[in-house]
């Protein structure tokens, strides 16, 4: 017995899925945004507070198309129009991974620097983004699959 399979690109697969179950994309889009908001809430709860709490308050989940000025980090650009992500102030990376001691004097990062060094002691890593996402990823996947299944069941006429 031989199995035949046809490999489709993302666009072709989405088009075919919309033909068979048009509600899937709608339910999946809602679930993606809900997952991003929930993940942002969880990350903000674990985020370092500092004196003002500005950074933790800046963490939010939203659609990528609503934030065209933001850059995706760690992943390739997506073609998914319903993709959602987590947005925060640019310092998230310094907080997540920490910084090494470095010279902060004007021109201090330059090889030809000959003045007095003003060393910043660096900061310890305060991980709060990736370990929180890894802990939530399995539940997020279940939530997205449940939304897709809901659309498929609706297309089949069952609820």
Question: Strand portion, in percent?
Answer: 5-15%
The oligomeric state is: single chain
Number of strands: 4
Q: Span from first to last CA?
A: 35 Å
Give the uncertain stretches in residue-range form: none
Order of helices and strands: HHHEEHEEH
- Order of strands, main sheet, comes to 1-2
**Tally of contiguous helical segments:** 5
* Structural Rg: 22 Å
User: Given the helix and strand composition, which structural class is it?
Assistant: mainly alpha
Task: Summarize the main sheet.
Answer: 2 strands, antiparallel
What percentage of residues falls in helices of 4 or more residues? Answer: 40-55%
Average pLDDT for all residues: 88
Describe the structure.
The chain has 159 residues and is mainly alpha-helical. The protein is 46% helix and 8% strand. The protein has five helices and four strands; from the N terminus they run H-H-H-E-E-H-E-E-H. The protein has helices at 10-20, 23-46, 54-58, 92-97, 130-156; strands at 60-63, 84-87, 102-103, 119-120. The strands form two sheets. Strands 1-2 form a two-stranded antiparallel sheet.
